[in-house]
Every structure is written in structure tokens, then in C-alpha cells.
Amino acid sequence: MVERNLVNVLLLGGGFMLIFTSFQTLGNIEQTIIDSIKKDLPSFTGDGYTSLAIIYAALSLSNWVTPSVLSAIGPRLAMVIGAITYCLFMASFFVPHVALLYGCSVVLGAGAALIWTGQGMYLSQCSSGDTISRNSGIFWAMLQMSMFFGNLLVFFTFQGKTHIDETTRSIVFAVLIAVGIVGLVFLTCLRRPSTTGDAPVELSHSVEPRQAFLNAIRLFQTPRMILLSITFVYTGLSLSFFSGVYGSSIGFTNAIGTSAKQYVGLNGVFIGVGEVLGGVAFGLLGTRTTTRWGRDPIVIAGGVLHMAAYFLIYLNLPNAAPFGNTDALSYIQPPSALVAMGCSFLLGLGDACFNTQCYSMLGGVFKSQPAEAFSIFKFTQSVAAAASFVYSSYCGLHVQLLILVVLGIVGTITFCVVEFAVKRERPTLERDYEK
Question: Pfam families attached here (predicted)?
């Protein structure tokens, strides 16, 4: 039944919401937390940006073998294994040690490749051409609700603190791990997608692992995927910026006041509001807007929202903000917490515009090769995110914003070029689908 597939999508979204309530919250505060750990344990020399860079580098490399793994074990088991690695990574913070932090970062990167490629493949299997936009929007809205709960926990537990003590850190870690485990249970409840109903769902044919790898290489070399990869690179850069760099930059800007660390959590909440609003809007209206106008107006809107956010961040936060506590000022004096939270909302809403349409494009246009298409998406996105976390340790805020502006404009253009080509082919595709 088609209804069964909708239940699967809701279970999938619920599982990811809980798992990423844990991980996205931890990623948002990781540099801030590690800065406090170093003050308590001078022998600890770990770095949050380096940990995140390792995660995304391992994720990008692992994406080339995940189609082969998924062809052997299927998307549901792959997602369960991936979820376990997230829980292990979070547990490692109870024992601050550089080798453990970076080792678990590598393991998480490999697990993230499994969970995300499995998610893309499974969502595609649970969707038809008529429901892919709706299901993508529902999943994205549920996923981004993760930005609320964990960051509200951070907002209240960090209240009035300029140093995050060990007791506070332990409470946050324990809650986040418990929530991640519940999300893991959700993923174990996923059922095989239904192939009956008004619109048949294509299940991937059994493919030899070696053939799955070669298929991914060939797909990556197609002109359409090369163009989309530029868009994917931009989503990776923006992801690393708002999930790791921007929140830390707010917390390190002393001129915001004694509540600067508290605003790190509130920043995540406002990003989540934008993400969920975008996901709900495109989930409810996705099929109608995609059929009538295509995906490009939504992506263009996302690009405009991000450009506005980057300009306001440039005016509001000092160039040295990503590196640590600073008394420096920018053009808005003193820096405005209200403007900072407004930018968080714009970053989240713009990100929802890009990602829901990327999911819709991959799940609809590349439906015959979902594992390969989503692995390429996560590969390019992760390479960009890893590179961003590397240069974030050396480049000031203004240089980072310039990179985002340039890639944002180019990525929006390349997505629209592909979408225009898809629009021209749509009548032919619809006739073939009816047959």
C-alpha cells in the first residue's frame, strides 16, 4: 500500500530527527565544548574543527564504497549500522583523549556515508514520481526539527556560563546519547517499501558490489551530474559554516555580552525554525510547485536568502570571530544578537530550499540509480564540508563569507541549468512512466 510507504517515510524522518538532535547539537557546540575541556585538561589538544574535518573527509572517501555495501546488505541495515557509529562518537566525549576523538571521527565518517546513502536510496524506494517532492519535504522538515530540542537543552544548560564545566558537559552528553539511541530504535522498525498502489515504486535491482562501484564512477562523469556536483559542493560549504563555524563565531564574540555562549544554542534553534518552515512548505506544496514551475524558483529563493544572510553576518560579526574569544568589533557596534539570530533563520530557510530540491532532483531524475546518485551527492558535499572545516582554522570570517557568496551564485546557476534540461524532457519522461 502507498500508505505503508508514507508510514515508512515518517519512521525514517523520526529516526533521523532523534539521531541528529544528538549529532547536530554536538557539532554546533563541539568547538565551544572543546575550548572548555582544554581549560580543565591542559593535556588535551583536540580541535573541534579538525574533528569535523576528519568526519567529512572520511565520509567523502567512504561514499565511493557505500553503493557496493548497500548492494550487499540493503539500505535498512546500512542505516542501523551508521546510527550506531553516531552513538559511539558522542560517547567518546566522556573520555577526552585526542586519539579517541579523531579515531571515532573516522568511524563516524564511514558510518555517516552508510546512513545517508541508505536514507537516499530508501526514500527513493518509498516514493513515486508523484510523491518524491512531498516525501522529501516531509523528511527534511522532520530531520530539521532536530535543531530545536538539543539546542534548547544547550540554551538552558549553558545559561549564564562563560566556561562549560565538566558536570554540565556530562549532562548534555548523557541526554544526547540517550536521544540518539531512541533514534536508532526507530530505524530498526523500518519495513520493506511497498511495491503496490496507484504509482509503483521502483526497487533497486540486485547489483554486484563491483558493478555498483563502476556505475557510480560512470554516473559521476555525466555532464548533468558534474553540473549538480557544483551545487552539492556549495551545500557542503554552507552546511559546515552554519553547523560548526557560525555558532562558534557568535559564542566567541565577547561584545555580544555575557550571554554569548548561550546564543550558540539559540542560534541552532533559529536555524531549525528556518529549516522546518522550508521543509513543511516544500513538503506540502512540493508536488504542485515542481509540476507547475519546476525546482529552480525555490533554489533561486534559497540563494537570495543566503546572500542576504552573508551580508548581514559580514556587518555584524568581527573577522576574528571563528578563532576564539575576541573583543574585536565589526560594522554594527555593538554586535546585535537579534541580527545574529535573524541570520540563523535565513541560513536555515535557504538551506531547506537547496536540500529539498536536491533530494527531489536525485530521487526523481536518478531513480534508477538511487544509491549511486545519493552517494555522489554526499561525496561532493562532504569533500566541500571537510575542506571548509580545514580552512576555517586559518581563514577569517570575511574570507569564508566571500567563498560562500561565489560558490552560492555558481551553484544556483548550475542547478537551474540542469532543471531547465529536465523540464524540456519532462513530457517524454511522463509518457514513458505511463507506459
Answer: UNC-93 (PF05978)
CATH superfamily of 209-434: MFS general substrate transporter like domains (1.20.1250.20)
SS3 per residue for 20-49: HHHHHHHHHHHHHHHHHHHHHCCCCCCCHH
- Coil, helix or strand at residue 90: helix
What is the tens place of the pLDDT at every residue in 147-192? 777 777 777 777 766 667 777 778 888 888 999 999 999 999 998 8
CB 382 within 8 A of CB 288: no
Among candidate residues 411, 78, 354, the one with its CA nearest the CA of residue 234: 411
Report the alpha-carbon distance of residue 249 to residue 329 in Å, rounded: 12
Q: Give CA–CA dist 73/8, Å, rounded.
A: 18
pTM of the complete model: 0.74
Whether the CB-CB separation of 341 and 273 falls below 8 Å is answered with: no
Per-residue pLDDT tens for 287-334? Answer: 565 556 678 888 999 999 999 999 999 999 999 888 777 888 888 888
Residues near 195 by Cβ (< 8 Å), separated by ≥ 6? Answer: 201, 203
- Note whether 1-190 and 209-434 share their fold: yes
Superfamily of domain 1-190: MFS general substrate transporter like domains (1.20.1250.20)
Alpha helices in 293-336 (DSSP H): 296-316
| Whole-angstrom distance, CA of residue 337 vs CA of residue 415 | 33
**Where do the domains of the chain lie?**
1-190, 209-434
DSSP 180-200: HHHHHHHHHT--PPP--SSSP
